Amino acid sequence: GAGVSQSPSNKVTEKGKDVELRCDPISGHTALYWYRQSLGQGLEFLIYFQGNSAPDKSGLPSDRFSAERTGGSVSTLTIQRTQQEDSAVYLCASSPQGRGGTGELFFGEGSRLTVL
Amino acid sequence: DQQVKQNSPSLSVQEGRISILNCDYTNSMFDYFLWYKKYPAEGPTFLISISSIKDKNEDGRFTVFLNKSAKHLSLHIVPSQPGDSAVYFCAASGSPGTYKYIFGTGTRLKVLA
């Protein structure tokens, strides 16, 4: 597809279970971001991948959160031992960045996670 | 610590009038700013951007103004249309060598027909 693809679009899980959220960025985009939006809140930065550089993990809220990006393309965000406060929409974005890029982020439609 | 702030959670404007959405930031290292629009159940979409070397950027009905000394930017929509009703986020970046974007909390704009 032409845009950023995220799956699943909706996920309901029980407290304490692990979840994996997937992001398929736009082909050729070197930068990939994860954000989350909790109910009534803004977009909270989680993690940023740029090419082969070490990811910027400064936004991950706890060590229960991790993300990887394989082969510079698809990314998976993993939340272990989910808590109710993890309930949010998790948004992935990609960008054709390097130096000189416009900086525009292209977002997917998000994965809505509900932890019961 | 909220580095990018949108202090108005909501705004209502009559169709045809001007909508002004405001954004303040605290980090003087930020040098690139973007506005995004978000409809319910969709991802945010890019609207307009501005670099710190400019104080104004226009694109059709949308104009972004940047006041670096005040660490303030604003988005003007003229004339406002009902289809502009959405949540608007401003975002800022500037750390050298990285493009980590910090988003504000958003302003919900409602344009009344």
Biggest interface and which pair forms it? A-B, 27 and 23 residues
Question: How much beta of chain B, percentage-wise?
Answer: over 45%
Q: How many runs of DSSP E, i.e. beta strands of chain B?
A: 11
Biggest sheet features of chain A: 6 strands, mixed
Number of helices, counting only DSSP H or I runs of 4 residues or more of chain A:
0
Low-confidence stretches of chain B: none
User: Roughly how much helix do the residues of chain B carry, as a percent range?
Assistant: under 10%
Secondary-structure-based class of chain A equals: mainly beta
Proportion in β-strands of chain A:
over 45%
Q: Indicate the mean pLDDT of chain B.
A: 92
Quaternary organisation of the protein chains: heterodimer
How would you concisely characterize the structure shown here?
By secondary structure, chain A is mostly beta strands.
Question: How would you describe this protein?
Answer:
- The complex is a heterodimer of chains A (116) and B (113).
- Chain A has 116 residues and is mostly beta strands.
- Chain A is 0% helix and 46% strand.
- Chain A is built from no helices and 10 strands.
- Chain A has strands at residues 5-7, 10-13, 19-24, 31-37, 43-50, 65-69, 75-79, 88-95, 106-107, 111-115.
- In chain A, the strands form 2 sheets. In chain A, strands 2, 4, 5, 8, 9 and 10 form a 6-stranded mixed sheet that branches. A 4-stranded antiparallel sheet of chain A has the order 1-3-7-6, with no helix packed on it.
- The N and C termini of chain A lie far apart (33 Å).
- With 113 residues, chain B is mainly beta.
- Chain B has strands at residues 4-5, 10-14, 19-25, 32-38, 45-51, 56-59, 62-67, 72-77, 86-93, 102-103, 107-112.
- In chain B, the strands form 2 sheets. In chain B, strands 2, 4, 5, 9, 10 and 11 form a 6-stranded mixed sheet that branches. In chain B, strands 1-3-8-7-6 form a 5-stranded antiparallel sheet, with no helix packed on it.
- Chain B is globular and about 40 Å long.
- The model of chain B has no long low-confidence stretch (mean pLDDT 92).
- The chains are: A mainly beta (116), B mainly beta (113).
- Chain A binds chain B through residues 4, 31, 33, 35, 41-45, 48, 50, 56, 58, 91, 93, 95, 97, 101-110, and chain B through 6, 32, 34, 36, 41-46, 49, 89, 91, 93, 98-106.
